[in-house]
Amino acid sequence: ELSPHSLTAKIDVILLPPLKVLFLSMVAYYVLSVGASKLSLEDVASSVRPFVHASVILCMAWTSMRWKKELLLGLKYHPKMISMGMSHTIGKILSMLIFILTVLILLQIFHVDIWPLLAFGGIGAAAVGFAAKDVISNFCGGLMLSITRPFHIGEQILLPSLSIEGPVEEIGWYLTVIRDKDKRAVYLPNAIFSSALVINTARM
Fold first, then answer.
1. Backbone φ, ψ for residue 129 (5° rounding)
2. Contact status, residue 194 vs residue 144, Cβ threshold 8 Å
3. Cα–Cα distance between 127 and 130 in angstroms, integer?
4. Which of 13, 107, 160, 173 is a good FRET partner for 51, with 20 to 30 A between their CA atoms?
5. 3-state secondary structure of 54
6. What angle (nearest 5°) sits at the alpha carbon of residue 17, between those of residues 16 and 18?
7. In 3D, which of 132, 103, 100 has the Cα closest to residue 124?
8. Is-contact 62 89, C-beta < 8 A?
9. Cα within 13 Å of Cα(98), Cβ side
10. 138 vs 141: CA distance, rounded Å
11. How far is the first Cα of the chain from the last one, in angstroms, to the nearest whole number?
12. What is the DSSP letter of 39?
């Protein structure tokens, strides 16, 4: 359980670097706008204004990423609340959401019409999805492993159909690593676990 002092320290660690960058960008914009008004170059100041708005959005995204990192580090010491695999999955999903939202807001700031990009992205996503269906199936398999949690890192499992037995060393987005009886690393695509029989000998 965090004390008020440690909680304040964490907030300082999260907010201080983004606020420094934001403060410097605001000071630079203020100096530039004052100089432009003295030299009758108002167009220069107006053209720089979107970059200031973009710096605010980037600092907010940076703060969100740092907050997410500290949150997941805190959950790491509370395994009863959430497993390590689930926290890893939640961290990846949050990172993707923050990245996508940041890019969409930046495109709006610079007056880029996103609808043609979304239409082209839909067609491209369909083509890429068809070409990379194995990658997507392994990604979905890794997501299901994180949700259903048939085994955790360090547990001993047996795959009778593949004659593989050993402790789980890593559960990634695409691959799961098992150390077999001969101490060899076995890399299994996550899609295998959607149809393979898994015996978790650590939960006997």
1. -60, -40
2. yes
3. 5
4. 13
5. helix
6. 95
7. 132
8. no
9. 19
10. 5
11. 33
12. T
Taking only Cα atoms into account, the Rg of the chain, rounded to an integer number of angstroms, comes to 24
Residue identified by tokens 């997507």 is: 136
Q: Which two tokens stand for residue 77?
A: 């010491």
CA proximity to 184, closest of 162, 166, 201: 166
SS3 137: helix
pLDDT digits (tens, 9 = 90+) for 30-66: 887 777 777 766 666 677 778 888 888 999 999 988 8
Residue 159: Cβ within 10 Å count: 18
* pLDDT tens figures, 126-164: 666 666 677 778 878 888 887 788 998 899 999 999 999
**What tokens were used for 185?**
């690393």
> By the 8 A CB rule, do 99 and 62 touch?
no
Cα distance between residue 132 and residue 125, in whole Å: 10
